[in-house]
Structures are given as structure tokens and as C-alpha cells.
Specification:
The structure is a homodimer.
Chain A: H1 3-13, H2 16-26, H3 32-36, H4 43-55, E1 59-61, E2 70-72, H5 75-117
Antiparallel strand pairs in A: 1-2
Chain A binds a DNA duplex (30 and 30 nucleotides) through helix 4.
Amino acid sequence: MNEERLSAVFAALADPTRRGIVARLATGDATVGELAAPYDVSVQAISKHVKVLEEAGLVSRSRDAQRRPCHLEADVLDLMTGWIERYRRQAEERFQRLDTLLAELQQGQDDTREGAAS
Amino acid sequence: MNEERLSAVFAALADPTRRGIVARLATGDATVGELAAPYDVSVQAISKHVKVLEEAGLVSRSRDAQRRPCHLEADVLDLMTGWIERYRRQAEERFQRLDTLLAELQQGQDDTREGAAS
DNA sequence: ATCTTTCTCAACCTCTTGGTTGAATAAGGT
DNA sequence: ACCTTATTCAACCAAGAGGTTGAGAAAGAT
């Protein structure tokens, strides 16, 4: 279901240039040319990166004369944190249970030792 | 910096099979063989996937006879949520500011209209 | 009408990725 | 010693990613 979307978003953010673009867009909308300025690659390359972000749903675009301002769709980021947090929490809980289990076993061993002493 | 690490982690989770492996490991440690069982690919392929997760720091492994149990390192997930949340929050705040700015402009326009009426 | 700016499309190249199979290694079990 | 189990290494392959350059389209500016 969301699996495909999730793959697209993770893949989009796996590239440092694209993360840079996202970071830039978090401070405000920008055109492709503006986004390209800090990087040592062609505008076409940045245009491709933006397209990837757009297809992942992380970026939307409007029109202003020749320009195509890019806008960060921050909601999509929640999709990721949702996925990540789910498993982080699950692992955490399991860890807690394991921890208390070990504590209980430890307690039981103490009891046994007390019993043996009587 | 952390940039390389971040790229590795995002890239690792961009693959649905690897996300499945992470999801499985969140419920408890498992061997490569066990991880491979649900999938319709060779054990070697899963072994490669685990290696990718390992190099991203998401998985660690110990030894138990021939087996190499895999363990989810949930801490690394925080690295991602940290990055994501940072920019989500930043975008959110900017949105808030823009929103109040628009409200103020609206208010100013109302004032002007009142002034013109007098 | 023509020129300029901004951006995308198309073709191409190289390196990486995810998969395969077959052989090798590691560690027990009999 | 020999066989079995669990995992990895090596070589290979097809497809995709990220880059390039060159040409084309879209929309103003003169």
C-alpha cells in the first residue's frame, strides 16, 4: 500500500544533494535556479533531483512566469517518522520486557539461593 | 560528518525487503536463514541486504555456533527522526509566521478601509 | 518579431544496486 | 574423518541512478 510511497521518500532523502534541497526549502520556497546555485553541478541535474522529490511527494510546484517555484510538502515527512517511530518503539518495548525478565530471573535466583541456605 | 551515515541509513530503508527485515528484527533477533524464509529470493540476496543494514549501523551481529544472529540497533533510527523533525519543524514555523503575517496584512487592509471611510 | 531567461526533454555514459549461481568457509553433529 | 547446516565470497548480469551536453519549450522583456 504505502510501501511504494515509503520507498520513494526514503530513496529521495538518501541523496545528500536532495537533502540539501529539502533543507533549503524548509527556509522558504525557491526556484530551480536558486536551488542549483550552491551546487557544483548543472541546472539540469538539479532539475532531475527536484523531479525525484516531487514524485516522492516531498515537493510541489506552482508557476510564476518562466519560474517554477518549489515548495516543501512537510506533511510527507510524517509518513517516515511514523514508520520509523513504530519500529523504534517496538524494539524499545521488547528491550524493556527483556530487561524486566532478566531482573525477575535474577530475583528468582536470589530466592533459590535463600531457599538453599535454609 | 554525519552526512554519509545519514545517506547510508536512508538508502538502507529505501528498499522494501530491508524495511521488512527491520520490521522483523523489531520483534526480536533472528538469523539470516530466518530472515530469508518469508521472501522469494536466495539466502545470498538476504545476506547482502543484511550487510547493507549492518554497514548503515542499523543491525549488529553476534555469533552462536554457525549462526550469526542479527540484532536491530534502534538508536540509529533516532538519527533519522532527528534530521526529519528538524526540517519539518522549521517548515511548520515558517508556515505559522506566514500565516500570522497574512492575518496582520488583512488587519491592516481593514484599517485602511476604515480610514478611507472617515 | 526577436532575444533572454528559466526550465525540461533526450540521448548518452559510468557506477551502483539487487538479483542470480557456484564455490568456499565456519562450526557442529555422527 | 565425514556430512550437514549456516553463511559468505566471487563472478556475472540487467536495470537504475546521477551526471553530462545539446536541443527544445514557455514566458517575458525590448
